[in-house]
Amino acid sequence: MKFPRSKRKIVTEATQSFTFTRRAMVVGGLQGGFGLLLAGRMAWISVAENEKYKLLSESNRVNLTLIPPRRGWIIDRNGRPLANNRTDFRVDLIPERVKDAEGTIRSLAALLALESDEIERIKEELDKSPGFRPVQVADKLTYDQYAAVSVRLPDLPGVAPSQGFSRYYPAGASVGHLLGYVGAASAKEYEERKDPLLITPGFKVGKDGLERSFDRELTGKPGAKRVEVTARGKIVRELTTRPDMPGNTIRLTIDAGLQEYAGRRLATQSGSVVILDCRNGDVLAMASMPSFDPNSFSDGISHLEWEMLSKDDHVPLRNKTLQGLYPPGSTVKPMVALALLEAGVQPSETVTCAGAIRVGNTLFHCHKRRGHGAVNMRTAIAQSCDIYFYQMAQRIGMDRIASMARRVGMGQKFPLPFPSQSYGTVPDPAWKLKKYGQQWQVYDTVNATIGQGYMLINPLQMAVMAARLATGRQLMPNFIHGADRPEAEPVGVNEGHLVVIRDAMSAVVNGGGTGGAARMNIPGVMIAGKTGTAQVRRISMSERAGGVRGNASLPFKLRDHALFQGFVPFDNPRYAVGCIIEHGGHINRVEDAPMICSDTLSFLFDPKKATEKLETLEKGWGGTPAERLARQTAAFRLSNAIKKGEVPAPEASNAAHATTPPMSSVPGTAPEDDNDAPPPPGSNPASAP
């Protein structure tokens, strides 16, 4: 079989030329297309994206830094600063830029003479920081310290010294709970707002109190600074600077002098005092003590100071004015008496007080063991007779009393610029059925009529109650000076009934009643008020039979609360006051609620005289709140160092002085006051079967 022979392709010069030409055209086309692509891309970069790459190029040469805006001032009603700003030098760490954290902190500690607890705080915050948030190392530095850090910046990557403004509170602890404090923004706040200003070193936001509520208004607009830098970030020269715009000024109704006086006059006690203007409800002072120094919090509080405040049994971190709730005790008796008058009870009707009364199978006692004898409404309020109110309250029922309590401000939620408030409780049959699923009992009425049982109030509500009893109008507390407010509605009671109540409250102080310690030493000025004692423990029948233990013999947490509410002048009310002393127990007359209220109100009439008295008293208390806090911190630091073995323990004779803050040495005895029984729910109201 023969296979066909393949035809041999003949290659000629012409075919070779054609093939080469075709390949050259393909390659040339590809090269041309690639060239056009490159030319187009170059044109796009140089023309269309010129601005973008110009900025990138500029950013390699120039750094743009935000300048934190100065925070707006908070001033009092007279223009006096409550919170302002002062120039300072500071040093921060930018976590994501730090290369050797241990070495950097060690160097800064040597340059700035940092305490050991400060070093621990910096390390902990650096570990917890998300990277973009600056960690404060120190502020309020001297120029020499600032310069010492600045010249070493090439060797300290991540260190950011700056000159700016820090928040300053002239009154210190006296405004701690009123104004709150500022601090660096948290990671959560940054994630929510995505504002680069929040991660700018030195910028702080409001964290509590009015600083937090008015943070937007107080925060201004940031400035900017352009500086030329080398490849390593070293500053060559400053190019341009755009100044910041400060935040708005907030003007409060607070009287700065009165606010500071009130904080100092609370002395070594744990409590609160509030003063209102009876004309319009303006809050003139709202002090809660002991407190914290907002300057320390704004600067970055140390672990040691935080631990000291957290362990203090006087709870300096709680705003007792708005967050503390207490049984109002006998301070509600004028309100209950007003409800009695509105229900038709005549003020001249008398009740015989023999010292105790049986309600069901329970024996309820008066604070005066042998009783007051025959008492009418005025005497019952002046002498704080419990038996009178036990009997009369059963006649009208709890619903009428609860209605009156709400009309004078108890349990009311006020529209205040504070992030956290507690509103108290005004119990009635419907409330108990809803909350506990139980029917209201007669003993519940007896409990509530003397401000015990389920009834709770805060110091601000107590001051509002006093203002409404004084004026007959439903005044609302206000903190913003000049704010537009509607005219206060009347409480809705007979004016003649209010006159009876005011006269009885005057007798409490000026007519031989339980509040004689509140009598004012201002010629022509008389104060009307009502004292109160709120029990916090169970008094057993065996203890009552053998004699109730005095508060002075009890641990701090088991002592009664001491309360006072009132207004001044009695015949033309201008100011109202409410004061609660936690576990005060009426032990020390000078540091008791009635005299604290009297002295604080006297500042409004004679500041010089009131201040002279206060300065004399403070010598016995160990100085001003700032001086006492400084000694307490030093003692706590020493005690902590001894526990760690960093310093040897002092001799036994000096140990107590080194570790115990000074106590009050001002002599005084408690006035004979009402000792309200029964105690709160669940604590067995001193009963007998």
Automatic annotation (TrEMBL):
<dbReference type="InterPro" id="IPR005311">
    <property type="entry name" value="PBP_dimer"/>
</dbReference>
<keyword id="KW-0645">Protease</keyword>
<keyword id="KW-0121">Carboxypeptidase</keyword>
<protein>
    <submittedName>
        <fullName>Penicillin-binding protein 2</fullName>
    </submittedName>
</protein>
<feature type="region of interest" description="Disordered">
    <location>
        <begin position="641"/>
        <end position="689"/>
    </location>
</feature>
<keyword id="KW-0573">Peptidoglycan synthesis</keyword>
<keyword id="KW-0472">Membrane</keyword>
<dbReference type="GO" id="GO:0009252">
    <property type="term" value="P:peptidoglycan biosynthetic process"/>
</dbReference>
<dbReference type="GO" id="GO:0006508">
    <property type="term" value="P:proteolysis"/>
</dbReference>
<dbReference type="InterPro" id="IPR050515">
    <property type="entry name" value="Beta-lactam/transpept"/>
</dbReference>
<dbReference type="GO" id="GO:0009002">
    <property type="term" value="F:serine-type D-Ala-D-Ala carboxypeptidase activity"/>
</dbReference>
<feature type="domain" description="Penicillin-binding protein dimerisation">
    <location>
        <begin position="67"/>
        <end position="239"/>
    </location>
</feature>
<dbReference type="Pfam" id="PF03717">
    <property type="entry name" value="PBP_dimer"/>
</dbReference>
<dbReference type="InterPro" id="IPR012338">
    <property type="entry name" value="Beta-lactam/transpept-like"/>
</dbReference>
<dbReference type="GO" id="GO:0008658">
    <property type="term" value="F:penicillin binding"/>
</dbReference>
<feature type="compositionally biased region" description="Pro residues">
    <location>
        <begin position="677"/>
        <end position="689"/>
    </location>
</feature>
<dbReference type="InterPro" id="IPR036138">
    <property type="entry name" value="PBP_dimer_sf"/>
</dbReference>
<keyword id="KW-0997">Cell inner membrane</keyword>
<dbReference type="GO" id="GO:0005886">
    <property type="term" value="C:plasma membrane"/>
</dbReference>
<keyword id="KW-0378">Hydrolase</keyword>
<keyword id="KW-1003">Cell membrane</keyword>
<dbReference type="InterPro" id="IPR017790">
    <property type="entry name" value="Penicillin-binding_protein_2"/>
</dbReference>
<dbReference type="GO" id="GO:0008360">
    <property type="term" value="P:regulation of cell shape"/>
</dbReference>
<keyword id="KW-1133">Transmembrane helix</keyword>
<feature type="domain" description="Penicillin-binding protein transpeptidase">
    <location>
        <begin position="271"/>
        <end position="585"/>
    </location>
</feature>
<keyword id="KW-0812">Transmembrane</keyword>
<dbReference type="Pfam" id="PF00905">
    <property type="entry name" value="Transpeptidase"/>
</dbReference>
<dbReference type="InterPro" id="IPR001460">
    <property type="entry name" value="PCN-bd_Tpept"/>
</dbReference>
<keyword id="KW-0133">Cell shape</keyword>
<dbReference type="GO" id="GO:0071972">
    <property type="term" value="F:peptidoglycan L,D-transpeptidase activity"/>
</dbReference>
<keyword id="KW-0961">Cell wall biogenesis/degradation</keyword>
<dbReference type="GO" id="GO:0071555">
    <property type="term" value="P:cell wall organization"/>
</dbReference>
